[in-house]
Amino acid sequence: MVLVIIYVDDIVIIGNDNLLLDKFTKKLDSCFSLRYMGQLHYFLGIEVYRDSTGLYLTQSKYVADLLIKLELEHLKPCITPMSIGKPLFPTNGKALENPKTYRSALGSLKYLLLTIPDLAYAVNKLCQF
């Protein structure tokens, strides 16, 4: 099996058969100019770790950078991504001065759903406002 991930001019090729991977990359290289960048460690904000048991994806650097960008790095972590039993209403609180920052933060949180699906419910709720 060969898995090909393409984003603009970046290509990630992974698989479980070295002979098939070699044949595939040679064929691709005959059609396009390829440059081998070595083992995959980072791609589109996703860190990749490999050991004998498999391939692991994390976005811990992305999260740390996001917390700094939003000036929230001083906050303590919590067990659940959202308060339990407190419904949200559009009439609660005051209107934001700059809703662009809120929308940008939600977009960044949506990107985290690739590796942290537990955030899906909380992010979906926040996107409703």
Mean pLDDT: 88
Structural class based on helices, strands and sheet pairing = alpha+beta
Strand order of the largest sheet: 3-4-5
Largest beta-sheet details:
3 strands, antiparallel
Number of helices: 4
How large is the radius of gyration? 20 Å
Helix content: 25-40%
Task: Estimate the global geometry from the Cα principal axes.
Answer: elongated
Total strands: 5
Head-to-tail CA distance between termini:
43 Å
Structure description:
This protein is an alpha+beta fold. 36% of the residues lie in helices and 19% in strands. It has four helices and five strands. The strands form two sheets. A three-stranded antiparallel β-sheet has the order 3-4-5. The longest helix is centred in the N-terminal third of the chain and has 14 residues, at 18-31. The N and C termini lie far apart (43 Å). The model has no long low-confidence stretch (mean pLDDT 88).
Question: How would you describe this structure in keywords?
Answer:
129 residues; single chain; alpha+beta; two-stranded antiparallel ribbon; three-stranded antiparallel β-sheet
Précis, in short:
The chain is of the alpha+beta class and 129 residues long. It is built from four helices and five strands.
Topology:
Elements lengths: L1 E6 L2 E6 L2 H14 L10 E2 L2 E6 L2 E5 L1 H10 L29 H14 L7 H8 L2
Antiparallel strand pairs: 1-2, 3-4, 4-5
Helix pairs in contact: 3-4
